[in-house]
Amino acid sequence: MSGIGGICELGAEISNAKIDAVVRALAMPDEIGRDASVAPSIGLGVARRWPFQQLASVDGVRIAVDADLINVAELTTRVKGKFSGAGSLPLAELLAKLYRIDGPSFVEKLHGAFAVALWDERAYRLILAIDRLGIKSLYWTNERGRLIFASRARGVLAALSESPDVNPAALMQFLLFSVVPAPLSSYSGVEKIRPGYRLIFENGQIRHESYWDLNYDESGNFDERHWAEELREGIRAAVHRHLADLRAEASGAYLSGGTDSSSVTAFMS
Predict the structure, then answer these.
(1) CATH 3.60.20.10: does it fit domain 3-210?
(2) Tens digit of pLDDT for each residue in 43-85?
(3) Is 267 exposed, middle or buried (0-12, 13-18, 19+ CB in 10 A)?
(4) How far, in Å, CA of 102 to CA of 60, rounded?
(5) Is 77 exposed, middle or buried (0-12, 13-18, 19+ CB in 10 A)?
(6) Closest CA to 142 of 205, 186, 210
(7) If phi over 0 gives left and psi between -120 and 50 gives alpha, with beta otherwise, what is residue 165?
(8) Residue 86, Cα to own-chain centre: how many angstroms?
(9) How confident is the model at residue 94 (pLDDT cuts 50, 70, 90)?
(10) Where are the alpha helices (DSSP H) in 27-120?
(11) Where are the alpha helices (DSSP H) in the chain?
(12) Alpha carbon of 251 to those of 7, 236, 243, 245, 246: distances in Å?
């Protein structure tokens, strides 16, 4: 996947060299380019794997995004309704304008996988967010008022003044469950943003906000056929949303032979 990263330090000049170090640490073998955007208090960078625009500066908003959204058409319609002549916008510009409409709650409108970093030059506000299920990642740390963030931990490490120690709590989680759950990371002082959360850095303060969570609504309906139909159509709708604009001859599915992948393949067909 591509990667985004950056540094936010209120009132400071962020050098291109520092952002370049973060982006170089994010690089993957199949990247196709690197972009950076630097302004007072903020520096953003992208290690691109996709041909579309992932970095933009629009109307006082600087944004870096790594996303695979399934409702771009819906978002475009919303933006066009508020901004005359918006036309067909690159994804980064589209999300910047969406922020101008909805403020920090714009992430609630995004469906699919995403990691986004947005700097509001007017409000001196940084917003970091990932998707509802944690398909994408963002690591971050606050080093003496300097907030460093990146899609992968090594991007954060590249900008730190000192190398952090191993996080013993994360090590224990990995030995027990073979995974390090958010907000923990393998490094002391470095955290991961939790799925369905946004981090807001404003006035030197950090706050975490949940923008989405699962609902477990109880029902008095005990009809087995009803719930079988609900489950089947729920899976069908989820699969079909991800198939929009895809060509059959260029699409496929990974088959493990289990119920999950077999069901996805059946609904794709």
Answers:
(1) yes
(2) 999 998 777 789 999 999 999 999 999 999 999 999 998 887 6
(3) middle
(4) 15
(5) exposed
(6) 205
(7) beta
(8) 24
(9) very high
(10) 72-82, 91-102
(11) 16-26, 72-82, 91-102, 153-157, 168-177, 224-241, 259-268
(12) 38, 17, 9, 11, 7
Q: What does pTM read for this prediction?
A: 0.91
Q: What whole-number percentage of the chain has pLDDT above 70?
A: 97
Q: Which two tokens stand for residue 221?
A: 């309906």
Burial (CB < 10 A; 0-12, 13-18, 19+), residue 110, is buried
Give the CA diameter of the chain: 63
Structure token digits, residue 239? 């699969």
Domain definitions of the chain by residue range: 3-210, 224-268
Beta strands in 109-240, from DSSP E residues, in sequence order: 112-120, 125-130, 139-143, 146-150, 191-192, 197-202, 205-210
Helix (H), strand (E) at residue 11: strand 3-13
Q: What tens digit of pLDDT does each residue of 13-27 get? A: 999 999 999 999 998
Residue 89 main-chain phi, psi, to 5 deg: -105, 145
